[in-house]
Design a protein that fits this description.
Layout: H1 14-25, H2 35-42, H3 46-55, H4 61-71, H5 81-86, H6 92-111, H7 114-126, E1 130-133, H8 136-150, E2 157-158, H9 165-169, E3 177-182, H10 188-200, E4 203-208, E5 221-224, H11 237-253, H12 257-270
Parallel strand pairs: 1-2, 1-3, 3-4, 4-5
Helix pairs in contact: 7-11, 8-11
GO molecular function: carbohydrate derivative binding; DNA binding; DNA-binding transcription factor activity
InterPro entries: Homeodomain-like_sf, HTH_RpiR, RpiR-like, RpiR-like_SIS, SIS_dom, SIS_dom_sf, WH-like_DNA-bd_sf
Pfam families: HTH_6, SIS
């Protein structure tokens, strides 16, 4: 297999050169694009693009993308290499899932503000009373975050949706922190929380994949994750990775995290005869 910069260009047609030029200019996003997408963006037919892969030494676009994953060693893509190699029964659809998840992480890295993760860690450590609103798939991530941070002595109050939200809102005051997971769409409950933020001025962290609605202007820490295009399957890999970064940052900043973990280990050792796991 050869790299794009090693191709013998004298054997390529005019249309092949257009395809090659596109690939060279958009190398970072090639891991997830289809031949149809390249055809639409270059104006070159699918048939010509299919022949192009064979001319440069690949069976098809999937074969080319696998080679690109193996070749790149300096990006997050390198982390997936061993996993792909360990899959004994090759499944192109499964490979596609891995590749799309890589894309979500790479796009997240391009748009993520690390200073906001740092700020979110400070806010969580600063506040004693923390409310969390999460629904659907994001509830799973919120539960993992709650589980991890409980080990560091940080407890959450999970806000229920629907009319139950009012029972939580009457107890939130200026000294509290609210964490909201807002993916795909702006729910009515989140609109209410944003409105109450203006009225009460509590601290607010928003995890989201929405760049519209000016959400970054309505909270203290805006933490973005890319989950895929509107019509695609929305992966939670990038949001979970961002939350993992936040958990690690909190553990690094916390003055009592080691003490809590030591106490946890002591309790496990003390009662291991009663609960064996």
């Amino acid at each position: 297999m050869i790299g794009l910069d090693e191709i013998d260009k004298t054997k390529l047609s005019k249309n092949d050169h257009i395809v090659l030029d596109y690939l060279l200019k958009n190398e970072r996003q090639l891991y997830c694009e289809s031949s149809d997408e390249i055809s639409k963006k270059t104006g070159i037919s699918n048939a010509t693009i299919s022949r192009f892969w064979k001319k440069i030494g690949y069976t098809n676009i999937k074969d080319f993308q696998k080679h690109m994953v193996e070749k790149v060693e300096s990006t997050p893509l390198s982390k997936i290499k061993n996993t792909l190699q360990e899959i004994k029964k090759r499944d192109e659809d499964l490979d596609g899932v891995f590749i799309k998840n890589i894309k979500t992480i790479e796009k997240t890295l391009e748009l993520l503000d690390y200073n906001k993760i740092d700020l979110a860690a400070d806010l969580i450590l600063l506040h004693r009373k923390i409310y969390v609103f999460a629904t659907d798939a994001s509830l799973g991530i919120a539960n993992i975050m709650e589980y991890r941070l409980r080990r560091l002595g940080i407890e959450f109050i999970l806000i229920s949706g629907g009319s139950s939200i009012y029972e939580y809102l009457i107890n939130i005051n200026k000294e509290d922190l609210v964490i909201v997971f807002c993916y795909s769409r702006l729910l009515s409950e989140i609109s209410i929380i944003l409105n109450e933020k203006e009225n009460i001025d509590f601290s607010l962290i928003i995890f989201t994949d929405i760049l519209s609605h000016s959400l970054h202007e309505k909270c203290d820490a805006f933490i973005y994750s890319y989950r895929g295009e509107q019509a695609e399957y929305h992966s939670m890999v990038a949001p979970m990775s961002v939350v993992d970064c936040l958990i690690i940052k909190i553990a690094m900043k916390s003055e009592v995290s080691v003490r809590h973990l030591e106490k946890l280990n002591q309790l496990r050792a003390q009662y291991q005869g009663l609960i064996k796991r």
